[in-house]
Amino acid sequence: MKTRFSLSLFDVMYSASQLNQLSFPYELMLPSAADLKKPDNRFSLFVEWLRTCTDFGSCPLPKRSQLQNLIAMLLGHIETQCENPRAEERFVRFKAPLFLLYVALFYNQHVVRCYGYDGKFDQHKPNPLHIKPGARPFTDLYIAQASLSTLPDDLQKLFPTPDLIKDKLLGKGAVYGSSLWLGVEPTYTPWHRDPNHNILTQLHSKKKVRLMPPKRGQAIFERVQAELGSMGHTVGDPKIRGAEMMQGLQKRLLHDAIWGDNHPLGIGEGILSPSDSLFIPMGWWHSIKSAEDDDNSRLMDL
């Protein structure tokens, strides 16, 4: 069995300098090449601010070499994406310190304070970080499936296996892995199934979940699979959070099939609030996304 937790960043600030020595697995959705060339695109504005900023507030700074390497990596993604003028949005994975997520949240809070969510400039609002007009919150950044076993021992102790699971529900030794998911909203996981039982626990903000039993969920995936195949597209493995389902046509079709106006009848839905947990049986299909019901929930999903 696998347990999945969402950890509030602010619960671990005391040990952030230690965490910055670790590499966390990030996922990022790069804008299309056409969007990256626009002067007001949110990704380039964030990277430019990160490159020139000298005041990161209370964010725990990594070593100077780490910061330089991080900026160089993000600039490299922009350069690579723009080499093909027709490049569509692209899903990428990389390793980086926790600082990147901290500073993205720090930046977003100041962007919203200065310009709101739509980037409209207000000359009467203070702008101490010199964020450029037109900036909008930096989104589509996710620490995904960071194994608890890679954390220092004192932090692993923050996530003991619940007695109900360990002793009564499944027995000792039944948990094969536990992981952290920390993201800048909106976060999204497409329609898929897991090869083991799964418990999702929400600790900050809210998530919306839709799910179906194995046969009915499989039928939906196969319908999308057939549509993609008829157009000559490669179909990803539904048991793996692969790039195919996170970008392009497959992402759009899976999203529309589950979250669109014509979603299947009888699909189960629930809202996870902080401290809520959901048991997802092995093989059950599910999709998870941020539940954006207020302005604060648009900053972080942890």
TrEMBL record:
Every JmjC domain range: 148-302
Signal peptide region: none
UniProt-listed InterPro entries: Cupin_8 (IPR041667), JmjC_dom (IPR003347)
Source taxon at top rank: Eukaryota
PANTHER family in UniProt: HYPOXIA-INDUCIBLE FACTOR 1 ALPHA INHIBITOR-RELATED (PTHR12461), HYPOXIA-INDUCIBLE FACTOR 1-ALPHA INHIBITOR (PTHR12461:SF105)
UniProt-recorded name of the protein: JmjC domain-containing protein
Natural source organism: Podospora didyma
